[in-house]
Structure formats: structure tokens, C-alpha cells
Amino acid sequence: MKHNILLFSFTLVFVFLFSCMGNSQATKISGSNGGTSSIEVIQFHSEHRCVTCNLIEKLTRETLIEHFPNTPFILVNVDDNKNEKIAEEFEATGTALFIYNPKSKKKKDLTDFAFMNAKNKPEDFKKGIKREVEQFLKN
Question: Cβ contacts of residue 39 below 8 Å, gap of 6+?
Fold first, then answer.
């Protein structure tokens, strides 16, 4: 019995430490200068977000504000029913990061890159996001 209580307590602490609450809706966050852009950067997430997922958001936002202030950054909670259509369009079921051109419908999936670099290599992450956005804008 004592072992079960200890195991249950450990599980609760683990869940609390490695998850966090996210938004319940899509949130559009523009750079500091406002304006328009031919592209958007979209981050999908689930209701419960891990440290890395939050870091991807933070670093992406910082990079966009610094280098592409007119590029909208959009957060989409895939667990919210009103975001079902866009989540299906991008085949996003959890955390995913995309560069997207809403006019041409062209998209670039940066999810693997984001998870590989956000936590241990934040400077590489920012440089990579900058490079990917520049390349996307050229094509």
C-alpha cells in the first residue's frame, strides 16, 4: 500500500514537471512592426505542452521579431475542436512547426529540425529558422 502511494505521488510529480497547459485556441502573434507578409509561421501544439514545445515557441517568436518582424506567428491548439480543419490540413496531431504561404498553400515542415535543436542548441535553432525562412521567401 505504501509503495502504491509512493508510485502514485511520483507519477503526479513527473506529469506536473514534464507537461504544461497550453492555449485553447489559435492565437496570431505578429511581430513588433505589424504589417503584412507573404508567409506565416505556424506552431501546432496539444493542450499539455512540454518544456521543449514551449522553448520552440519562445525561440521562434524571438527569431521572427528580430529578423522578420512583419511575419505572423500563429499558435494552434490541435486539441481544440475549432482548429480541427487546419490541424487536418497540416496533418498535425501534436507539436509541429511550419512555414506557410497562405496564397500558394506551399508549406515547409520544420518539426524535426525544431525538436533536434531547440533545447540543446538554441543559437543553432535561431540561425536555422532564419535560414529556412529566407530560403522559403526566395522560392
Answer: 71, 99, 100, 101, 102, 133, 136, 137
